[in-house]
Amino acid sequence: MTHLTRRKFGQTIAAAAALCGASPPRPAAAEPATPGSLSFPSGFLWGCATSAYQIEGAVTVDGRGPSIWDTFSHTPGKTANGETGDTADDSYHRYKEDVRLLEELGAKAYRFSISWPRVFPQGTGRPNEPGIAYYERLVDELLQHGIAPYPTLFHWDLPQALAGGWQSRDTPHAFADYAAFVTKRLSDRVHQFMTTNEFLCFTDLSYKIGQFAPGLTLDAAQVNQVRHHGILAHGLAVQAIRAHAPSGTRVGLADNPNVYIPVIETPEHIEAAKRAFREENAPFLTAVMEGRYTDAYLAREGTDAPKVAPGDMQAIGSPLDFVGLNVYQPDYVRADSSPAGYSILKKPTSFPRMASPWLYIGPEVIYWAVRTVSDLWKPPAIYITENGCSANDVPDAGRIDDTDRVMFLRNYLTHLHRAVAGHYPVKGYFLWSLLDNYEWADGYQKRFGIHYVDFATQQRIPKLSAHWYREVIARNAVR
Ligand code: GBH
Fold it and tell me: Is residue 448 within 6 Å of ligand 1 at its C-beta?
């Protein structure tokens, strides 16, 4: 029997079984269920992502100190409906159930974040034993289920007690001490760490636009200094982790660079998109990958440029074992004859979006994110550390048929496959998010989960997208 005939035969049985209401037989991994199905390399790391303040709740339990997000979310007018992370998904108490959801998906890895104010309620000084013990329990639970822990040390929940927040140069040093402590406690079991999540969000959005905690609107020089402290914290933490972890422990970060799609795939536009990527991310990922600020950034900022102490840039440029990219929405670039050599296109008002107004749909962005980072800096490995979307999920007789999310994910993963097929070193994908959760200033109205959470009862219900993702993982293939 030829391969083709067997596949057709399999499909017929599946179709018949589906008509009878039985679940179709699962195709063998080597044999795609659909012609043109896109297989991923064996060992590709399929996972899900969350973050501490967005899911844990239990904000006053076991000695946790307040974070700037507790303060901000409790300040009237700062978040949708005044919603806070006080309870969120109560994952602090329900982590075993949440690990079970991962297990049912067949997930190979879980990206979560460690709450700095649980571990150091004052940000620095005395560690809080019950705080770190929680993460030991979570890690052990994951390992018992064969799921690799991918912790991030900072996903925006800065201890409130740290005076000056990211405006202070002491904060990056406090972060390095916290990183060293966590490394000492977990690196016997955790083989990879991410330092910070999304520089732009905890610097610009928090200290320039004021949309996120602590909600400040500082001037350009102050903002550049905050950005510098953010990337310095990352660099000092890389050094601290390496100093205290066994050799072989991998260190990376998760960032959300602006990603540019060349308007037309011709060499001149591709080159322009690459230039745009390097310059538009100059204060963040570019500085981290190159260990220096670009000449154009320093010239642009002039006297507002950050003050840099000796040793800072060397720490910031510490070599990484992997780069994590959070990829959501696209921007488009064309080559032009301006001094920069590119322009970023304005999106037409008809450009399609998901339920969050900022979340434009551009599946190719995931390919260009991987390709551009790889072409520019050749890191040993790249992970997609977040990708996913919000949707207006409404249970209907207990089901959530989020076909819009499935459409979104299927298209993004199809373009991720293009990067795999092009031999770019992308090693894994973390879907944002395992669960509906606290979407920061947007509160609970914007749902990103592949599991629906009823916030009144804390019941978790797999959405259609969870069933779909389970099949992706089982077949190691998309479509
Ligand atoms: C990620 O940020 C975060 O890491 C994660 O915590 C979050 O839940 C997830 O994405 C989904 O949002 O309101 O127009 O000013 C993604 C980057 C930056 C996108 C802030 C939304 C607000 C845009 N986010 N941005 S706007």
Answer: yes
